[in-house]
Design goal:
The chain is mainly alpha-helical. Helix content is about 75%, strand content about 0%. The protein has helices at about 20-65, 65-70, 75-100, 115-155.
Length: about 160
């Protein structure tokens, strides 16, 4: 099938009517584009709360399991080092998530669309990177906490 050609020999564009699935896809793309920064901010806010709660609970769980008995034994500096690793990882994770929720300062004008898009893109990339870093540190803290807890229970 040949494309339609006008009198001057140029190919004419024929607009096909949009289907319902096309309009749904466009609406999804619009929501994704407009909501991504708010979603990152909300996730960071919730992770700060979870992180701070786990930080406080860590010391309570270690006290309940009797970690001070292992720390008091001679030659337990390796255990003390391992037991202090989760709080350090949690603090680093908390810093990552706190930076995500901080307001970001940028100099933009409302009439320079290329600058607005560049700033938006850099903020999304920075927040995505910090989210991955924060989650990685948080998960590492969880795993080390499990290891420390098993070491206390076995000893």
């Amino acid at each position: 099938m040949k494309p339609p050609v006008n009198q001057s020999g140029d190919i004419e564009a024929v607009a096909e009517p949009a289907t319902y699935s096309d309009s749904l896809a466009k609406e999804y793309a619009k929501n994704l584009y407009l909501g991504s920064t708010a979603l990152q901010w909300e996730f960071g806010k919730h992770m700060v709360t979870v992180n701070a709660g786990f930080f406080a609970a860590y010391f309570g769980v270690m006290k309940f399991l009797g970690a001070e008995v292992l720390v008091a034994r001679p030659g337990s500096s390796w255990f003390l080092t391992l037991a202090l690793l989760p709080p350090i990882l949690l603090i680093l994770s908390l810093i990552c998530f706190a930076v995500i929720i901080l307001p970001i300062r940028s100099s933009i004008t409302f009439d320079d669309m290329t600058r607005i898009e560049a700033v938006r893109r850099s903020h999304l990339v920075r927040r995505s990177t910090l989210t991955v870093m924060g989650l990685t540190l948080f998960i590492e803290a969880l795993f080390v906490t499990i290891i420390v807890a098993f070491m206390i229970l076995v000893a």
